[in-house]
Amino acid sequence: MRDLAKLILNTVPTAEAHCDGPCGVYDPSSARIAAEAALSMTKKILALTPPSGSDGAEWARYLNTMARFVAIKEEQSHLAKEELLVLWTDYFKPVHLESNPGIHEMFWKAAKLCSSVKVEVNLEHAQELMDTIKEIHGVFWATKGREVPWYTAS
Fold first, then answer.
1. Using CA atoms, how far apart are residues 97 and 13, in angstroms rounded to an integer?
2. What pTM did the predictor assign?
3. Cβ(117)–Cβ(35) below 8 Å
4. Predicted confidence band at 154 (pLDDT cuts at 50, 70, 90)?
5. 110 Cβ partners below 8 Å, 6+ apart?
């Protein structure tokens, strides 16, 4: 049985990929969309006004809306972090560091901002995350020799 396993393993060609799945499709726009949703929810949370009275139905509506905004903000912040980490660890290679030595710091900052946006309701951090992703967008497309305009949905 061992001889059969050796024979099979020695005859199977080696496959190599640049990432977990050799798709070759990377784009920081998925991180931007998630971060933009988190920014939008942060703005909505800050704009939400609690009811002034003791009407149970009003409070229930308010708390339900707040809970939904918070859940979306946390989910989208985490998604932005996942998208950024995949881009950082799977796309960027040592050759990219030669021309962009600040890549690691930029991605580390973005990942930390995703965490901050997730656990806080801080408009400044949410906007800073968007600004950092804009930087990443510029560096990413420059590595491909392309100029892709930055845009947001809102």
1. 31
2. 0.84
3. yes
4. confident
5. 31, 81, 84, 129, 132, 133, 136
